User: Which sequence fits this backbone?
């Protein structure tokens, strides 16, 4: 089996429910979508994808936000906090300094809990309701836990989050806590947290809502659909490239799936598919290593470090879905330094776009690839910024300027400002 852009629409299996089923990307085994809880293939342990008997075209979408794309999702409604419909900002100074025809910033930090995870959770929690589970769990570098806690509480479910102790930004822990999650701080990194939460889920202790869950990725497809619709409206053409930060590689997998389904629907030509371009921090770059080496599998990095804590991940679980996405679309992957990430965070902030460090990696990656001549000057590019600046107030304060003490009287303030 391979996840190819030119794959034929599969035959509908007997276990499909209203034209929806789960299929293993490795062996092709199919499963009913909502009868039992499963995350991977019963037969070979491969990753699962949600499959549909029919795919909508752009004309079929109506409404606003994630649920505008209900015809491309496994359910018609979900536990919602009005996620999606995020802004696509123009950044003329950045465009000029990087030197490409157009750069637009798809700011996913403008979702209800401040990251793209909300798009996945609105669908994932709806499926949890359909399956009748009452306890949700995730491992997290922060944003997944904030979204899980918020959407879980909205859906009236118990939530359990496993975080790498001391490695999660303050805003995210505060969100998970106030939305009522039980926060379990693990003496290990994110990948160790995910190993544990997978064990708990296999034992039936909780419903796993990391991106290993194929339903969650369905919600994240809508990022790609929104970008394509907006570019079509503004430029009468799709973007040449989408640059995005990569951690567990869920978004890369989800965007690729969105494109494959549009190709199958006849709404997007294979030649129009944007080049998926992943960016990782130098200290946590297993996907970049695999792309550079032309490898089919990603080697797990046990020691990972970066100031961009959201992408401090050494074992991207969605690599088998994401690697074909990068290759088949003609994209690439690049690693950037923490210093370059901070610089990009400042560049975005200077155009009024406030993002957390991991998000800025996309812009740092674009700058590097343009400087190396891998991105051409005539390209139209969308950079994904995945989380809001206030998620990581410590990183923002460190990247910004220090407050200046002044006396409590006007002349003193004026004197200080003029000098
Ligand atoms: C802010 C932020 N950016 C990027 C990522 C990476 O996204 P993905 O895991 O889908 O590659 C994450 C989490 O993984 C994140 O929280
Ligand atoms: N950055 C993520 C890491 C977990 O990724 P997921 O997409 O598999 O849930 C986070 O915010 O926890």
Assistant:
């Amino acid at each position: 089996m391979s996840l190819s852009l030119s794959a034929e629409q599969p035959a509908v299996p007997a276990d499909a429910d209203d034209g929806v089923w789960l299929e293993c990307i490795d062996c092709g085994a199919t499963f009913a979508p909502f009868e039992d809880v499963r995350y991977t293939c019963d037969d070979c342990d491969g990753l699962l994808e949600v499959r549909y008997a029919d795919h909508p075209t752009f004309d079929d979408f109506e409404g606003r936000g994630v649920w505008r794309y209900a015809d491309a999702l496994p359910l018609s409604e979900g536990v919602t906090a009005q996620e999606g419909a995020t802004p696509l900002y123009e950044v003329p100074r950045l465009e000029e300094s990087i030197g490409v025809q157009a750069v637009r910033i798809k700011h996913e930090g403008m979702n209800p809990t401040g990251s793209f995870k909300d798009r996945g959770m609105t669908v994932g929690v709806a499926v949890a309701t359909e399956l009748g589970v009452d306890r949700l769990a995730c491992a997290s570098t922060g944003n997944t836990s904030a979204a899980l806690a918020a959407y879980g509480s909205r859906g009236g479910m118990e939530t359990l989050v496993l975080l790498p102790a001391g490695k999660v930004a303050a805003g995210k822990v505060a969100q998970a806590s106030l939305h009522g999650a039980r926060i379990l701080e693990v003496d290990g990194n994110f990948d160790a947290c995910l190993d544990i939460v997978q064990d708990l889920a296999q034992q039936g202790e909780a419903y796993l809502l990391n991106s290993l869950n194929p339903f969650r990725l369905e919600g994240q497809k809508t990022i790609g659909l929104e970008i394509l619709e907006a570019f079509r409206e503004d430029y009468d053409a799709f973007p040449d490239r989408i640059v995005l930060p990569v951690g567990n590689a869920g978004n890369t997998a989800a965007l690729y799936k969105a494109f494959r389904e549009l190709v199958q629907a006849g709404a997007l030509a294979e030649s129009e598919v944007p080049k998926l371009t992943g960016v990782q921090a130098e200290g946590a770059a297993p996907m970049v290593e695999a792309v550079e080496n032309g490898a089919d599998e990603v080697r797990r990095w046990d020691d990972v470090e970066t100031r961009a804590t959201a992408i401090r991940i050494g074992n991207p679980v969605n690599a088998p879905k994401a690697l074909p996405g990068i290759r088949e679309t003609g994209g690439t992957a690049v690693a950037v330094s923490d210093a370059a990430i901070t610089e990009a965070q400042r560049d975005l902030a200077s155009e009024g776009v406030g993002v957390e460090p991991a998000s800025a990696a996309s812009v740092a990656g674009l700058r590097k690839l343009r400087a190396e001549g891998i991105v051409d000057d005539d390209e139209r590019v969308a950079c994904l910024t995945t989380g809001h600046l206030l998620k990581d107030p410590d990183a923002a304060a460190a990247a910004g300027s220090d407050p200046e003490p002044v006396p409590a009287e006007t002349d003193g303030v004026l004197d200080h400002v003029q000098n």
User: Anything to note?
Assistant: DSSP finds 13 helices and 13 strands in the chain. Residues 139 and 193 are 5 Å apart (CA to CA). The chain has a mean pLDDT of 97.
